[in-house]
TrEMBL record:
The keyword NADP applies. InterPro entries: Ald_DH/histidinol_DH, CoA_reduct_LuxC. One of its GO terms (biological process) is bioluminescence. Keywords: NADP. GO terms for molecular function: acyl-CoA dehydrogenase activity. This is Acyl-CoA reductase.
Length: 353
């Protein structure tokens, strides 16, 4: 079994490798282990990922890689892994069924299983199948003990001790039935919301545009719903969103914008729009691409009660001095390692199987 120190060191080396790839700059660095084997090949995998899924633009892939490179620092990994006793864990094989909505969306589960000392059996989404296997191969080079502990499959899952599965509400029902006899974490669809009070600054709204538009709004941490006071004026909101006006130049996004706008107009829904984003009054949490829903609230206490009642549907609440565990404007797509999906502590689960 690989020691916890060696597991941490291996992932820290992976973080150093990923630090060469960011939105601002792709630059080969000196002193990165096995760079001569992996650097050019990884550039090719990024290209393949773009070609396989047109939502995975180069900027979105690099954004994800850069964020993970910052999380995979040795000090951060030590703090993360020390939250649970991972030294004497009895190794198990954990199956992980990954979503494919944003690049490397399943990497936190991948990290958690391996840092816990277990083996992993990965079933990827066809939408996100290029990058992770390549990074797994890099891990096996920097730490030979990982060889034989990482398996990717496209077949029906078999021979595993526990499972972590992420999918839609419909697939979650299937997962809950199929994996009922195994220790499991089953994740359903969630969305993120922002609470506006009227006291936000121009900078807050510009930051909020990151929460709305990063990954085209496809992530569970993407803001898809606003709560606003009665008679709220959306002018400042739209001014902040204007920072992302270039998004309409993406053909797939533009097609979705045009289609959803046509549907709304034919249905005679009231909506406000600015040429690349529509907002529509709606009680739902999950909005279509290029759309953000909004709902009015009468008082803050009732809204807090509602958000608590609907906590199983909400991933993040973006706000400023409004509610416990809120996320600051512009920070939803920069989660810490301890910001567990659905609020379920993955390391705790893995330490008890």
């Amino acid at each position: 079994m690989i020691s916890i120190q060696n597991r941490i060191t291996a992932f820290a080396k992976l973080g150093a490798f990923l630090s060469q790839f960011s939105v601002d700059n792709i630059k080969k660095k000196d002193n990165i282990e096995y760079n001569e084997i992996f650097y050019d090949g990884f550039l090719h995998q990024i290209k393949l990922a773009q070609e396989n899924n047109s939502w995975f633009t180069k900027d979105n892939i690099l954004f994800s890689l850069n964020d993970w490179s910052k999380s995979l620092k040795k000090s951060t990994l030590i703090k993360f892994s020390s939250s649970k006793d991972l030294i004497d864990s009895s190794p198990k094989k954990v199956a992980v069924i990954m979503a494919g909505n944003i690049p490397l969306v399943g990497f936190h589960d991948f990290l958690s299983v391996l840092i816990s000392g277990h083996s992993i059996l990965v079933k990827q989404s066809s939408n996100d199948k290029h990058i992770l296997p390549f990074l797994a191969k890099y891990l096996e080079y920097v730490e030979e003990g990982f060889k034989g502990k990482i398996t990717f499959t496209e077949e029906k899952l078999s021979d595993f001790d526990a499972v972590i599965a992420t999918g839609s509400d419909n697939t979650a029902r299937y997962f809950e039935y199929y994996f009922k006899d195994k220790p499991n974490i089953i994740r359903k669809s969630r969305n993120s919301v922002a609470v506006l009070t009227g006291n936000e600054t121009d900078e807050d709204f510009i930051n909020l545009s990151d929460d709305v538009f990063q990954y085209f709004g496809l992530g569970c941490r993407s803001v898809s719903k606003l709560y606003v006071p009665k008679n709220y004026n959306f002018d400042n909101f739209f001014k902040g969103m204007y920072a992302k006006k270039e998004i309409i130049n993406n053909a797939k996004y533009a097609n979705n914008y045009d289609y959803n706008k046509a549907v709304y107009l034919m249905s005679e829904f009231d909506l406000l729009e600015n040429g690349f984003l529509m907002i529509k009054e709606d009680e739902s949490y999950s909005s279509p691409i290029a759309t953000v829903f909004y709902e009015y609230y009468d008082n803050e206490i009732d809204l807090k009660i509602k958000l608590h009642q609907d906590k199983e549907k909400i991933q993040c609440i973006v706000a400023k001095d409004f509610i416990e565990n809120e996320v600051a404007f512009g920070q939803t797509q920069h989660p810490q390692l301890t910001d567990y999906a659905d609020g379920v502590n993955t390391l705790e689960f893995l330490s008890n199987i």
